[in-house]
Amino acid sequence: MATQYQQDDDSVVVIIGSGAGGGTLGNELAQKGIDVVILEAGSRIEFEDFINDEWDAFAQLSWLDNRTTGGGWRITKDFPNLPAWIVKAVGGTTIHWAGASLRFHEHEFKALTTYGKIDGANLLDWPITLADLEPYYAKAEDKMGVTRTNDIAGLPGNNNFKVFKAGADKLGYKECHTGRMAINSAERDGRNACQQTGFCFQGCKWGAKWSTLYTEIPKGEETGKLEVRPNSHVVKIEHDVSGKVTGVVYADKDGNLHEQKARVVCVAGNSIESPRLLLNSASTMFPDGLANSSGQVGKNYMRHTTGSVYGVFEKPVHMYRGTTMAGIITDEARHDPSRGFAGGYELETLSLGLPFMAAFLDPGGWGRTFASAMDSYDHMAGMWIVGEDMPQEQNAIKLHAELKDQYGMPIPDVWFTDHANDEAMRNHAYKQGMALYEAVGATRTFPTPPYPSTHNLGTNRMSEKAEDGVVNKWGQTHDIKNLFVSDGSQFTTGAAVNPTLTIVALAIRQADYIAQEMAAGNI
Amino acid sequence: MTTVYQQPGLSRRELLKRGAIGAALIIAGRAVISPDRAWGLEATSLKPDTVATLIRMARDTYPHDRLPDRFYAIAIKGHDTKSAEDEAYKALIEDGVADLDKRAGSVGYRGLGWEEERVAILRDIQDSKFFQTVRGDLVVSLYNQKEVWPFFGYEGEAFSKGGYIERGFDDIEWL
Ligand SMILES: Cc1cc2nc3c(=O)[nH]c(=O)nc-3n(C[C@H](O)[C@H](O)[C@H](O)COP(=O)(O)OP(=O)(O)OC[C@H]3O[C@@H](n4cnc5c(N)ncnc54)[C@H](O)[C@@H]3O)c2cc1C
Ligand code: SF4
């Protein structure tokens, strides 16, 4: 039986959410002997119980609490109540994720300095540099078993990768390989090697892909210093008259409310729920929500400039066989304004199963154009674009004025509109992706619009100065010393890379800081 | 060698059946029956004519010429089930189909011989709640039938077969 802490134990660190940020932080703190309670809204589903079926897995794992959307993105029309495709379960979105694990480029920590002021964009430099994060990137890569680091071999290329690589060669791209993936290419850390099952997005039933669910969390629990409490949905963070946070109120699976006291509270509910919780915790002392003296809580919502390209070939590809995303081209990741936009993007292999292809290839599409594309499903290859998008103040998580969730709290209303820079980048990437497949003989290509957001970033951003953002360089809120943000919402800017390695590196670094500040009696 | 995925059984009978695609559905009592009498669908709350039109409309929306009608019949069955419990829903479907027939003139929607003629009607109503409801449901209820996956060359569940590591994850030969 794992350790259990009392609800009135005010010596514990409470972490809200058990995903990439929260799960990692919980283990790191527990390894240092600090008592930790992770409150997780979802239930605990072990990897044997994952389902190799897209819609069944979606129903099993996804965050399906009501959300609304607004702004100019096409999601408002096609998926008005599904702005993001993320997980509600122990392990968070590290159950869904594909495993691509890339470091930021140096200049991406200095977006404002490198790109200069861009109209309509709320750009800012990070208060940390690549050099600050490098030691933590190294720890994260080792922890997660990232291929092509620590002498870990790359994954073998599947059919989808082979088409991608052939096209990359034809276009003269130099940097194309099977990626830096937090997926075991051989047994490591007590976990299996990848069996090329092709259901990475539905949860890896082999445990070959890193997820906090079966790495960080059980390791933390083994120390006897970590309790993970599933089906515990935090609705409010409490504070005392001095303005320090004292605990959180959460609903259990029957909807009954409890209070868990805390010495330190770390918010890691992903970039929609984290700012929502801070806003919903408004009080007479903090009428605009907790840690919101800057007014930036919920603002600058980023989701990467994404989109997909699928190509149809005369002969079969069977792209769905094998790893979902083990293939990358990094040539376009550089900052090169001559292309007509600031920042860069990566191209990564991607496949969807037939049911999701139907839903996402051209949402709302029908008729022969659509059906004939589906007829070519097994002759398709696919890739995904992941580029840096511009932080914009009006892209935001707001509290809905009328609608409430099952606990009576306002639901999040997610606003997003592309910046002109985002559009220029996406169009460039579409053109390159289509050219790549045409170079290998594609008879038809599809520039597919972005899916509901899988990368959600920036809504509690890190800043040097308190007036520019929500947290400092340690993820500690500028306003409240014992309140931290520990997930992707800390991102000042998004960079042209998948975010999770950076979320994990920041969590490892934050654990050092929290331990040090607790030991010094500062928090 | 290219690993061949499971093909749906294409017996002589099956091939003959394919010839029947597009032929008129038979209505007998409350049942909608395929022309070759291979399957029938009982309408429980919607009019059988409505069910037959929904099947036609489903194929016009996602036309896969190699897919037998029964998959479209299975895909639209949910509207009949839901209509039994929800009067407003039933009205949405019945009125929507009646409108299709009206727009088609004296022969009715199913009586229009060319797909283009029927699709032109669907294009006119594609933003309506009726069309969006039927299409939104169909994109899942059709493509999420495991039995249709082999027609598209999708193999579905793979864990129990040991993934594709020994079953063709990198078997592409034509590059
Ligand atoms: C399909 C898919 C593929 C992806 N592929 C990649 C990839 O290849 N590489 C990459 O870097 N990233 C990838 N990502 C993104 C990556 O998964 C996320 O960026 C990452 O998991 C975010 O970490 P997080 O800690 O911010 O949030 P999450 O991992 O989402 O964790 C948040 C947790 O908090 C819980 N929670 C929320 N609110 C509350 C509350 N009020 N009370 C209690 N608990 C709460 C949630 O249930 C959840 O478990 C992918 C994502 C998806 C969906
Ligand atoms: S392809 Fe590999 S990583 Fe993905 S689900 Fe299968 S075994 Fe896991």
Automatic annotation (TrEMBL), chain A:
Residues 86-305 form the Glucose-methanol-choline oxidoreductase N-terminal domain. Keywords: FAD, Flavoprotein, Oxidoreductase. InterPro entries: FAD/NAD-bd_sf (IPR036188), GMC_OxRdtase_N (IPR000172), GMC_OxRtase_C (IPR007867). Residues 391-507 form the Glucose-methanol-choline oxidoreductase C-terminal domain. Gene3D superfamilies: FAD/NAD(P)-binding domain (3.50.50.60). The keyword Oxidoreductase applies. GO terms for molecular function: flavin adenine dinucleotide binding; oxidoreductase activity, acting on CH-OH group of donors. Belongs to the GMC oxidoreductase family. This is 2-keto-gluconate dehydrogenase. It comes from Nitratireductor aestuarii. The lineage of its organism: Bacteria, Pseudomonadati, Pseudomonadota, Alphaproteobacteria, Hyphomicrobiales.
Automatic annotation (TrEMBL), chain B:
InterPro entries: TAT_signal. PROSITE patterns: TAT (PS51318). This is Twin-arginine translocation pathway signal. It comes from Nitratireductor aestuarii.
